[in-house]
Amino acid sequence: MSTTPREDNDHANARVGTTVDRKWRLDALVAISSVAATYKATHRNGVETALKILHRSQSTYAPVVERFLQEAHLANRIDHPGVERVLDDGKTEDGSVFLVMELLAGDTLEDRRSAAGGKLALDDALPAFDGFLDALIAIHTAGVFHRNLKPANVFLATDGRVVLTDFGRARLAERDAKAALSVEGLVLGTPAYMSPEQAQGKRSQIDASSDIWSAGAILFTALTGRRVHEGNSNHERLLHAQTKPAPKIASLLPELAPAVADVIDRALAFEKKDRWPSASEMRRAFWLATGRDESTLPAETKPATAKPDQGSPAAPARSEASQWLESATKKSDDADLLPPPVAAFVRTDPSVVLHGASPARRKKLSKTTILATVAMVLLVGCVAGIIVLTFTD
Which one, of 142, 130, 138, 141, lies nearest residue 80 by Cα? Predict the structure, then answer.
């Protein structure tokens, strides 16, 4: 049954107070996106968690369901305090797929930056940056590329952890040859934090180095208060990301220590070969650049579990949804032709404005931007085929 976004929103609100799968009571709606709604939930045994439920309008599209469930499989490859855990999956009584996730109290790096007036002082941001880079090392060690790193997906938990969220666009390094969920020429992610190769839709070139570029963009924005590539719309920012090198951070923040600026500038190099060769080396360089002794550099927190097989379920119990995913991952390359899930967080502090609670305003492209974008699509299309845009702010 097809539903409209308004109906999805109404239905998401109507779920509050109901029980899902005879054991999860939905206590409050805490976040909503165009693809899913996230609730604070209580299990019948009293444990509080977050429940992320795919909208009914999306649940009929197998590729969307596939990518939604993939978030659990990829996140659970990494037993690391900086990676959001998915505890279970299943289906609601009306057939919508859901994920059971750990309940995180705190706010995002984007929230923290906004609350500080748009940018953070380096000293205030150090714990967040250190934890973020440690988590990035862990996911790369596990063979996972995130592909959608941005301040809104870096969660600063009240227990001191820095947690990476939203693995809905992540993929496995070992699946490069299969490419079951991605196609060349497909643009996935957030334009303001996309590496050049990601913005150009060069799927086969998106790897750990692409995440390192996004990490540099996160540090750049947190410290300067502006995006690497500004623009009046996502399309304009995408065009800039495809064609323009990042500005030197010192041009916007001249008081920043040159050593720190060098770390960020290298991460943001237009050519992959000029970036940091690994997140581990970037973390070490950042530690030293901020005046800290190498002897005090904490050991990397390695993932504690072995990598499960690609078909492993999101939780010990094999639900119907998990079994469906095993067969779905063998499907064709058409999977990404529908939009993947958008990030959704859980905050337990009711005073915090919920991210994703309302759609972002979209501004119209100027004629110049439209012509430039069409020209770029034609140019890239000659090399990589038709570009399908599936991105968020």
Answer: 138
Q: Give the separation between CA 381 and CA 377, rounded to whole angstroms.
A: 6
Distance CA 179, CA 173 (A): 10
- Alpha helix (H) ranges present in 76-182? 109-115, 122-141
Highest mean pLDDT range out of 45-54, 186-195, 363-372, 381-390?
A: 45-54
Q: pLDDT category, 236, cuts 50, 70, 90?
A: very high
In contact, 203 and 390? CB cutoff 8 Å: no
Give the least confident one: 74-78, 249-253, 325-329, 363-367: 325-329
On whether residue 51 sits in a domain, the answer given is: no
Identity (one letter) of the amino acid at 145? F
Residues ≥6 apart with Cβ < 8 Å to 59? 65, 95, 96, 97
Least confident among 79-88, 334-343, 352-361: 334-343
Give a yes or no: residue 28 inside a domain.
no
Mean pLDDT for 233-243 is 91
Domain span including residue 172: 116-302+364-391
Check residue 168 and give its pLDDT: 65
Please check whether residue 335 lies inside any domain of the structure: no
Do 26 and 39 meet the contact criterion of CB atoms below 8 Å apart?
yes
In a domain, 32, yes or no: no
CA end-to-end span of the chain: 29
Return the number of other C-beta atoms located less than 10 Å from residue 280's C-beta.
16
Residue 8: the pLDDT is 85
Q: Report how far residue 162's alpha carbon sits from residue 133's, in angstroms, rounded to the nearest whole number.
A: 9
Q: Coil, strand or helix: which one is 115? A: helix
**351-384 burial: b if 16+ Cβ within 10 Å, else e:** ebebbbeeeeeeeebeeebeebbeebbeebeeeb
DSSP assigned state of 304: -
Q: What's the CATH number where 144 sits?
A: 1.10.510.10
pLDDT tens for 255-277 read: 999 999 999 999 999 999 999 99
Q: Give the span between the Cα atoms of 206 and 171, in whole angstroms.
A: 10
Domains in the chain, number = 1
